């Protein structure tokens, strides 16, 4: 294990290197340097200090012949990297001093970095937290994904409506990566399969090149660093001169444009299926490149192919890389001449699959026509996999059915272990989507409850609370988060609670200042900050929240001098551009905000704010400032949630349903520190079977009826009675997510929150208890679970 040389990290040495980079890497002198120049110079200075631990880790893995973990994911939602590196190398203070000495504002420099938004939401952010934990735990690992030229779109509001524009993070120099032009693999598509003497060979129609870009991911205290390897698509030959000479000017650039398209843009769909040819090509592109790279590294160490699972564990992040099964078989059979059956078994022993949703619309399936046109050889191999599976279990759960290739079934059958992401979700995976396969392969499905990295989601984003914790229990909790339980004896200590409260207040001030400066919004910082931040989706039920807001507004207006608890409702999140109803919900929130915030009678008691373009960096400001965490999905629909963990950890009790990881959070923090409401997963199923359940719920809830009538009357839409027809029809006639049925229970829970918040000391105690009891939700614990129960890949330490 490498120890960082203390001489390379003093403020003076940092300053010297920043000046050197400014001059020699950027060609600027201090007098003419922009904020951007300073940021790049600081980043390069920091990056230099990651290289040694990175080399040392790689060397140690090779020398010790350690098993490697490969995490294949379409998304890595890493956000800004500068602070990650500063924190993990413990350089915060020295970097600040160095920048000050250079006349620069450290915070402004850090905030200049664009977010790397290479993901949509929870699934992508989980992958980023896992990379942090793998490095902190010194488990040799590679993350493999796509180097999208454009990350998740930027969101703007026009008249309250979501508008999207292309995100362009790579227009600025991406300093953290090292381009590896020598690491490049051909990736084929289309064509046909020729069979001669029983030997199949794939004669592809198109070829692009996958080119590697490596970002080191350094763990806590810089003791270990792994690699995030992202693939960019390049044309196989820059220009087809032969076509050009024949006069086929368009044909001459076809290969080039296909290549440029593949890694061009992240699909902006969260838990909904895409089903587009380009998406299939993206999935195959990065999976095939990663597997060639894995096999090359494995063979270079001189191992026999039969020992692959002893040295390699591959984790598939949802079904997006599920083509890894047939692709690995193809490499073993067509390239390395293994027989089909042992190749299937070897691939299966190496692969594992994580399921992240039960929503039927998210389960990937490809039409046989499309699939066999793009990947004809894989189509054949899947038929072999299906045959081997029938042979083994006798019954027929099919991979190819009704004209579709079903990626969930493929991933399951080709995995050693399948896991869900919370206890409830894993049980439901066994009982619902994979009930048949679970019976045929008992024991294959496991649970690994998600977690979050405490380095970014407490230490880095919440310095005020970090200090209170360290003053109370000392340091060391950052990589041993269960030590937060040592706060427990202080939960009745006035001095501790005062300090905790002061930290929360300063975080609320910090957020208010930022919202004022960046979004022109003014917040009452004495009010409760009630936060719902996540993708906009019917199952997450932002509309339940806004309906309750309208009902509360009505109650306050009816009795303005009542004993109200002032609140600011804060929303953040994007909708998939094609998700019409989610976009209506966004507009409704903005319309309600406009109406309420103008009401002189209520605006100090109830305010609604929805800053546009929610992203990781905004989350880092919102989460520490939150008082109440909204986790209000329809029970059975949220696989886990991870925002729920970040908010609770940062002292924001949850109002929520028994869904996903909420169940386990409530078990840990105690039911008195969690505001539970709503139907359970099994009650949801039963209620849906009842006749006219939504209309009945509306009829018997005067508050809900009134709120819906106000929307219908155009009260929030300048008299326009049709604007929210889609939302209303949905709730009256197709309320699949049971917003109407959970409304009263939610409204009552919110009033319990109001009462609890009025007891300020009692509330601070609840908030602090949440922090003290959330240690189990570190992604370090999650990764230990994967390492022991799935990968059999020990820490090198
Ligand atoms: N999730 Br599938 C996504 O963010 N995107 C997806 O495409 C799929 C799942 C989320 C789940 O909705 C969330 O409950 C979970 O916490 C997260 O994955 C990580 O497991």
TrEMBL record:
Coarse class of the protein's main subcellular location: cytoplasm
Coiled-coil residue spans: none
One GO BP annotation of this record: glycogen catabolic process
Keywords: Allosteric enzyme, Carbohydrate metabolism, Cytoplasm, Glycosyltransferase, Pyridoxal phosphate, Transferase
Transmembrane segments annotated in the record for this chain: none
Top EC class, one word: transferase
Pfam families referenced in this protein's UniProt entry, alphabetically: Phosphorylase (PF00343)
Needed cofactors: pyridoxal 5'-phosphate
EC number(s) on file: 2.4.1.1
Catalytic activity: [(1->4)-alpha-D-glucosyl](n) + phosphate = [(1->4)-alpha-D-glucosyl](n-1) + alpha-D-glucose 1-phosphate
Subcellular location: Cytoplasm
GO molecular function terms noted in the UniProt entry: glycogen phosphorylase activity; pyridoxal phosphate binding
GO CC, any one term: cytoplasm
List of residues that carry N6-(pyridoxal phosphate)lysine: 646
Family, per entry: Belongs to the glycogen phosphorylase family.
Role of this protein: Phosphorylase is an important allosteric enzyme in carbohydrate metabolism. Enzymes from different sources differ in their regulatory mechanisms and in their natural substrates. However, all known phosphorylases share catalytic and structural properties.
Name by which UniProt lists this protein: Alpha-1,4 glucan phosphorylase
The organism of origin for this protein: Sulfitobacter aestuariivivens
